[in-house]
Amino acid sequence: MDYIITLSCPDKSGLVLAVSSWLVANACNILDSDQFRDGSNNTFFMRVHFEGEGEGEEKLKALEHSFKPVATANEMSWQIWPCSEKPKVVIMVSKQEHCLTDLLFREKNSELPIEIALIVSNHLDAKPIAAAEDIDFLHLPIDPDTKTAQEKLLLGEIERRNINVVVLARYMQVLSPGFCHAMAGKIINIHHSFLPGFKGAKPYHQAFEHGVKLIGATAHYVTAELDEGPIIEQGIERVDHRSTVSDLVNVGRDIERIVLAKAVKYHAEHRVVLNGHRTVVFQ
User: Fold this and answer.
1) Domains in the chain, start-ordered, CATH in brackets?
2) Inter-axis angle of helices 245-268 and 98-108, to 10 degrees?
3) What is the DSSP letter of 62?
4) Of residues 11, 227, 247, 254, which has the active-site annotation?
5) Whole-model pTM above 0.85?
6) Are 195 and 227 in contact (CB under 8 A)?
7) How far apart are CA 166 and CA 180, in angstroms?
8) pLDDT at 195
9) What is the C-alpha to C-alpha distance for residues 202 and 96, in angstroms, rounded to an integer?
10) Strand stretches in the chain, DSSP E
11) Is 227 known to be catalytic?
């Protein structure tokens, strides 16, 4: 059975040897390995994809138990995952459905190692899409008077369904600091890269008025600070003076789809390790 371990710790000599020796001692074989040292804070990061004999909860517990002394001796933050377990995802969307439909297509065609367990929206536009895919749909209309109660209800659904990741697929509501803290490191958002230059409504119209030459999108983890969470993936496409507002919108949607899908894939494959306000992404 295949597993993935990710870790970070203060850098020093012998870390790769320590992890490799642990794998050998547990009759495990490395399938893929990558590591990175951040010289700015002297932190070592590592991701190893390996196979081992046996499977199931007992095998996982045995691996975790045997690694604890290695982790303690080297001050490691770490986690081990079975590759066979797909993270359960809730997709939140408002009225723009392009990212939602793209994620559904990729999940159905096994391009994304995730299980979409629930679709949530503050509107009803996406309900027929959820019904067509036989995915549960939760309508959570939001206003200042209901926001706290609705987020509490959503957190209850996330816990009840054992959901691991929240994906904001053009969800046009700001999550409360409480919700962000409750799901820290587990909320992925997509937005146009014009922020903070072109805030508010119709960013592509603003971009057109300023004659931009690059259209972009950014996927990042959500924090209580609006659109300032650690960045996972970005993409750009060149445009020129011939491009209309409609052209910019269409190019922007394409980039948003691709960038969000990459970010979700990297997260689901445990390729992203937080490094303060930044990320290490093993590709």
Assistant:
1) 2-82 (3.30.70.260), 88-281 (3.40.50.170)
2) 40
3) H
4) 227
5) yes
6) yes
7) 10
8) 55
9) 13
10) 2-10, 28-38, 43-52, 77-82, 88-93, 115-121, 137-139, 165-168, 187-192, 214-221, 231-238, 272-275, 278-281
11) yes
